[in-house]
Design a protein that fits this description.
7 strands, 7-stranded antiparallel beta sheet, alpha+beta, globular, Pnp Oxidase, Chain A, 4 helices, 150 residues
Length: 150
């Protein structure tokens, strides 16, 4: 993909490269853990470049829950702005690739339900929420849903 711009974060770029080069059979977990990841491909909201990010694999049926935790930092990860500007993404989950459309979850009851699923999949999210809350940031939650053929 000629307009792909790898992450400036070395381990992120390396993980994406290994994941994709293997066809989804290597680099399937968050570094130094057993937690599975997916690769989310989207467009940069400013640059228009293709961006690829390994995110925790949190599934809700055929949908994926994308959590903008940024490790509980005071700021959102950059990909949050990308999804807000352009909701069409591709998700690679191991060897499968899906065309998806994301929406930010704002309904409190839906958000609570999805957050519980996310914390069950990746328990660190609970402490990330606490840390982000200290700066007044509410961690964004997106739901990626399959694009239905028309």
């Amino acid at each position: 993909m000629s307009d792909y711009k790898p992450s400036p974060v070395g381990w992120v770029a390396e993980q994406v490269q290994r994941y994709e080069a293997s066809g989804g059979t290597e680099a399937l977990t968050l570094r130094n853990t057993d937690y599975p990841v997916i690769i989310v491909t989207n467009r940069g909201w400013k640059s228009g470049a293709v961006r690829k990010t390994p995110l925790m694999r949190v599934a809700d049926g055929e949908n994926y829950i994308l959590v903008g935790s940024n490790g509980g930092a005071p700021d959102n990860p950059l990909w949050v702005n990308n999804l807000r500007a352009e909701p069409n993404v591709t998700i690679q989950d191991k060897t499968q690739v899906y065309e998806m459309r994301v929406r930010e979850v704002v309904d409190p009851s839906e958000r609570a339900r999805l957050w519980a699923i996310a914390v069950e999949a990746f328990p660190r999210y609970a402490s990330y929420l606490e840390n982000a809350g200290k700066s007044g940031r509410l961690i964004p939650v997106f739901l990626a849903e399959p694009v239905k053929a028309t």
